[in-house]
Amino acid sequence: MDTEDSLIIMLTLRLRGRMGRYHLVDLLGIGEGVIKDRLRELKESGLIQTSRSGSILTNDGVRELNKSLSGYGIVNIQEVDLTPVFGRKYNYCVMGGLVKWSSGISIIELRDIGVKNGGDAVLIMHVNCTSVDIPLTDLTIEKFSLELASRIKSTYPCGTYVIAVCGRTLYYSLRGLIEIAKAVSMVQLNHGLN
């Protein structure tokens, strides 16, 4: 898979299911020409199947998407409502768990990467065995929402760092999340932590 746009389109199809081109344009906030070109490339590669009712990932598409995300060290990407934490409703928030983490990673730098890549709000959490902590603070997600904390603990194993990014479009939320995961992967490569 060549472009981040293709990855984001595939991830959107996984999150939302079958979807038409115009709906993708509205949801992702990127141009129709870009969407049309990426869908054509994905179809030609056998990664999506298209019909009058929209596009959907093929089995090969699911495998390729999982391989790409695994390469960035991110798992279980899903949409999430972070209104209890941020005190305001963001239309598009996603979260994913990072497979590996190093003490050499700066949480503030990662937050800044998420914001530079389109995130309006970035939340980094650590799942420990009894709570979901917000590093660099004395806060836990449980103080904001027991339901959200329970969802996170049931999805991500103890010890996992979970990144959540909210943006003005689903594209920017996913892009911010992916760029943070890429940055963590680079730190691990540079420190020989793979």
From TrEMBL:
The lineage of its organism: Archaea, Thermoproteota, Thermoprotei, Thermoproteales, Thermoproteaceae. Transmembrane segments: none annotated. The keyword Nuclease does not apply. One of its GO terms (molecular function) is aminoacyl-tRNA ligase activity. GO terms for cellular component: cytoplasm. It comes from Caldivirga maquilingensis (strain ATCC 700844 / DSM 13496 / JCM 10307 / IC-167). Keywords: ATP-binding, Ligase, Nucleotide-binding, Protein biosynthesis. InterPro entries: GAD-like_sf (IPR004115), WH-like_DNA-bd_sf (IPR036388), WH_DNA-bd_sf (IPR036390). This is DUF4443 domain-containing protein. GO terms for biological process: translation.
